[in-house]
Amino acid sequence: MSVITVCNAIHCNEELIVPQLATKTGYRLVHDGEIVNLAEKLSGISSDRISRAFSAKTSLLNPLTHEKERSIAYLRVAVSEIVAEDGLIIHGFCSHLIPPTISHILRVCLVADMTHRIKRAHSMPKPDKDPSKAIHRSDEDMAAWTMQVLNKPDPWDQAIYDILLPTDKVGVEESVQLIVRNLHSEVLTPTEASLTALADFRLQAKVQLGLALEGHVQAALALEGHELSVKVKNGAVSLTIEKNVLMLGRLEQELKDIVNKIEGVKQVSTEVGKNFHQADIIRKLHFQTPARVLLVDDEREFVQTLSERLLLRDMGSTIAYDGESALQMASEDEPDVMILDLKMPGIDGIEVLRRIKATQPEIEVIILTGHGSEADRETCMQLGAFAYLHKPVDIDVLSETMKKANEKIMERRQQKDA
Amino acid sequence: MKKKEALLQAATFLFSRKGYKDTAMGELSKMTGVAEGTIFYHFKSKQGIFLAILNKLKEGILPEFERYCHAESEKTGLDMVEESLSFYLFMAANHEDLFAILHQRYPYELAESSPECRDILEAIYNSFVGLFENAILTGQKDGSIAPDLSAQRSALIVFAMADSMVRFRMNNLYDVRALSGELVNACRRMLEKRTD
Question: Which of A31, A250, A373, B169 is the most exposed place for a label (fewest CB within 10 A)?
């Protein structure tokens, strides 16, 4: 005996396949409703409120109340109690709450293409006025759900299931047979490991509920990118803290205190996750673009437009219209990056570059020219230009080049700081 | 050694008033008459000076908190909370340099990449919150404070209120002295054990 979970996109013959599957296997059919009712009994929260967890819409107050997370935590406990029974078909949203480590469960998903689904919708006894809209809404709910509990944006992702059945191509009878055939495979016999995984899941569900009740929002599975994740292996609980907190010692103590009070917990450990120290990434984002940019070009209109377009990309710049004022502004304002035209009256671009690199080598110079030759390019690069670009320039290419110049500057500063 | 001491004093002044980023090493050099090369010889980097200052400020204030926490008291825990609020505000006024630095963004940014900075800050805040937690735990033992409250979480909330008062005062947002009665009452109402 084993357990089958079935998840489906709506109007994929599920109302035919699922009952037939139950008859054929003799397994008890468990819908979301039964699980929600059990969650209601456990929590005292009305089943209506709990069912809101299945909707893509989240209350604006949720960040304060954590109601959705709490409902999911109760649903998980309910599922973990039910799934300990044998010979079940668990059908609906709640199937995603069962972790894949419990290997004696067959995970089935029913999908079909849109034309088939709309056709099926019209053949229902009470068809929707706008079936396509209803289908999209239901798909959105399912996508939000798998994102929330599995961190998977695509609810029909093959990786979540053992069988992904295209019901527009495979008939009802054939689908049922296919599932039953797979059910008898040896892989699905409960093993010692899969039964331990089941016991671990039951404890994990309780721990996650305990933490959710104390306001600690967590990932459903041990996933990255959340504030806290809970893993249970052979009865030992490990908590991974992903959110960077200064008073870490206090947080760890609080989490341990909460979890230690939960029945069945023998051992708790805490650790800091990979995302805890992600300061460097954040900082890179902050300083992706250079803070001070000096544009040097005698074509006034061109350079003013360029300055405006850079501003749209959050890069402020000042302008010099000839070489002489460029040199003066460079020594006064100490820009990070200079964008320099070659052909200018008076001191030309190459000469500006030469002098800048002699006196302020830390300024990265990007040459932007309309007339430059290959020989000019070589000269400029030898003099220490960061890049050599031709007009007209793609603004994406230019801003990308500026970001790279900025990275170089940042690295140099960090080395100097260290 | 004397030179190092003078440098730290001057740098504390600059960092606490101008902020880390707006303090130039040239300025520190001008203020103290110590050549920039010598400054870097003593501290290796601007960040090094900053950490030395933070550590020194920590060493200056933590023993006072420690002593206060361990002093014998006849008072109830709830009264101790009130006293701790005054003590915290008093300390903040007496250690302006430290509190000015603690209320800047930079130390926390640095803590994300520097374990040394992290440890110093964590120790400082542990001691601040510990002050209130200690009083609350005492109150839960002597029956003046509700036993079902989480001492640690309540201590964090009381501390957050007290620390906001410090920010109010430092930035002259409001006349904080006028609010102190309300602050104490709010904390009492939040913590006291009700008989009904």
Answer: A373
Looking at beta carbons, which residues of chain A come within 8 Å of B46? 417
Q: Tokens 């994929």: give the residue.
A: A12
Cis bond leading into A392, ω under 30°?
Answer: yes
User: Given an 8 Å threshold on Cβ–Cβ distance, is B112 in contact with A244?
Assistant: yes
The verdict on A283 touching B (C-beta cutoff 8 Å) is: yes
Instruction: Quick: pLDDT tens for B76-92.
Output: 999 999 999 999 999 99
pLDDT, position A226: 47
Q: Do A254 and B109 touch (CB under 8 A)?
A: no
pLDDT of residue A418: 60
CATH of A3-190, one of 3.20.20.70, 3.90.1300.10, 3.40.50.720, 3.40.50.300: 3.40.50.300
Contact A131, A122 (CB under 8 A): yes
- Asked if the C-beta of A282 comes within 8 angstroms of chain B's C-beta atoms, the answer is yes
Contact residues for A45 (Cβ-Cβ < 8 A; gap 6+): A39, A70, A71, A74
User: B108 and A246: CB-CB below 8 Å?
Assistant: yes
Q: What is the pLDDT of residue A45?
A: 93
- Of all helices (H) and strands (E), which one includes residue A29? strand A28-31
Q: Is B153 in contact with A254 (Cβ distance < 8 A)?
A: yes
pLDDT for B102 beyond 50? yes
Say what the pLDDT of residue A86 is.
86
If you count DSSP H runs as helices and E runs as strands, how many of each does chain B have, helices first? 10, 0
* All domains of chain B in start order, with CATH: 1-44 (1.10.10.60), 55-191 (1.10.357.10)
Per CATH, which fold does A284-417 belong to?
A: Rossmann fold (3.40.50)
Q: Which chain A residues have a beta carbon less than 8 Å from that of B153? A: 254
Whether the pLDDT of residue B60 is over 70: the answer is yes
- Closest in A246, A254, A280 to B152, CB measured: A254
* Contact flag B112-A417 (C-beta cutoff 8 Å): no
Q: In the prediction, which pLDDT does A218 show?
A: 62
Q: Is the pLDDT of residue A176 over 90?
A: yes
Please, which residues bridge with residue A317 across strands?
A293
